[in-house]
Structures are given as structure tokens and as C-alpha cells.
Design a protein that fits this description.
Blueprint: H1 9-12, H2 15-32, E1 37-38, H3 39-46, H4 53-68, E2 72-75, E3 78-81, H5 83-93
Antiparallel strand pairs: 1-3, 2-3
Length: about 90
């Protein structure tokens, strides 16, 4: 279609799917804490068939968004939940 934007990521990655990926990534990292994982290791752990662009991209987008929100900390290639994320998770359990 002449009216559609072929680079419009919002169409290819609905907000609901991104939010789900963010929840899954954060929950997994909270469960694995204090283990340190790279984004590739995280993707392998969460996806049945890792290595595909779309699955790796979803994990990378989730990490980027959670880092921007202050819920993940990326250091030296490793991804960790922040103290704030861990505290909130603890409150959710209690």
C-alpha cells in the first residue's frame, strides 16, 4: 500500500507483545538473580528456538526498555535486575 510505512515497527511489534516480553524477561532475571546472564544467554534460556532475528530482537527490545525504565542494569555485557526491581518483586510476594 502506498499509504503504509514499511519501516513502521509499531505494526510489526504490537505494544502488548512487547509488554509481555518485558514481563517475561524481568521475571526470569529476578528468579535467576544473583546469576549474571548476557542478552544472548537470556535469549537462549527464554526461547525454544533461539538465534532467530525476531526472538533475539524481542529480548533485546525488552532489555532496552527495562534498562531505560530503571528496572535492569547492563554492565560489561551482563544484564541484572536493579535494586528497585528486586524490592518491588519482594513486595509483590509478601
Amino acid at each position: 500500500m502506498a499509504d503504509s510505512n514499511p519501516t513502521d515497527c509499531a505494526e510489526r511489534y504490537p505494544a502488548g507483545e512487547d509488554a509481555k516480553a518485558e514481563r517475561v524477561v524481568l521475571a526470569f532475571l529476578l528468579e535467576e538473580h544473583p546469576s549474571q546472564l548476557t542478552i544472548l544467554e537470556l535469549s537462549r534460556a527464554l526461547n525454544a528456538h533461539p538465534g532467530g532475528f525476531s526472538t533475539n530482537d524481542a529480548v533485546e527490545r525488552a532489555v532496552r526498555e527495562l534498562d531505560g525504565a530503571g528496572l535492569l542494569y547492563c554492565q560489561g555485557g551482563f544484564v541484572l535486575p536493579t535494586r528497585a526491581a528486586r524490592s518491588f518483586a519482594r513486595l509483590e510476594v509478601e
